[in-house]
Design brief:
single chain; 177 residues; mainly alpha; 5 helices; 3% strand
């Protein structure tokens, strides 16, 4: 049953329902599994830098100490959220507030990693959103597209999809409060 309200809704009982097509669930599950692999196999992957943000921009020594103390805790939290997100995507049951929170954190982590790979800053996203609302086009006007352009185009579409999904998730979490 598809919801007329959106893909993620809060039920009358206060739980949540994730209503995504099976192919979307499979793709998201695969992407989240890839994120888990990246997190567990790489300590210095530049694409993951936004998942382990710098705490002390002006003091590398303090930041290194912060990273030493907090990285494992951040990693453990992200991996637990990934486990829950995969559980959410592989079932059709209603889920709890804790489960929808973990799901949204995993979706946001994916979005951050893809945004980093695309070299998108939040300020870029806000500018793009504003220009789309103003009727401006953000399409590339080049005549020939390379394979890299195609790959980047797919990543941009995925980035937008994850933003849309995250927006629905936050909206559902905020409803009924």
């Amino acid at each position: 049953m598809k919801s007329k309200n959106g893909p993620i809704v809060r039920t009358k009982s206060g739980t949540f329902k994730v209503d995504l097509p099976d192919d979307h669930r499979k793709i998201l599950t695969n992407l989240i599994e890839e994120l888990r692999t990246s997190l567990t196999n790489s300590n210095d992957d530049a694409a993951l830098r936004r998942l382990f943000p710098t705490a002390y921009h002006n003091d590398p020594k303090k930041d290194a100490e912060y990273q030493r103390l907090m990285r494992d805790e951040l990693l453990e939290s992200r991996l637990a959220a990934i486990d829950t997100a995969i559980k959410v995507l592989t079932q059709e049951n209603e889920i709890t507030a804790e489960e929808i929170d973990a799901f949204s954190r995993s979706i946001n982590s994916l979005r951050l990693v893809i945004g980093t790979a695309l070299d998108i800053a939040e300020s870029d996203y806000e500018k793009q959103n504003n220009s789309q609302h103003d009727g401006a086009s953000n399409e590339d006007s080049s005549d020939g597209a390379s394979d890299d352009d195609d790959g980047q185009s797919v990543q941009k579409e995925l980035y937008e999809y994850l933003g849309w999904l995250l927006e629905w998730t936050v909206s559902a979490q905020s409803s009924g409060l």
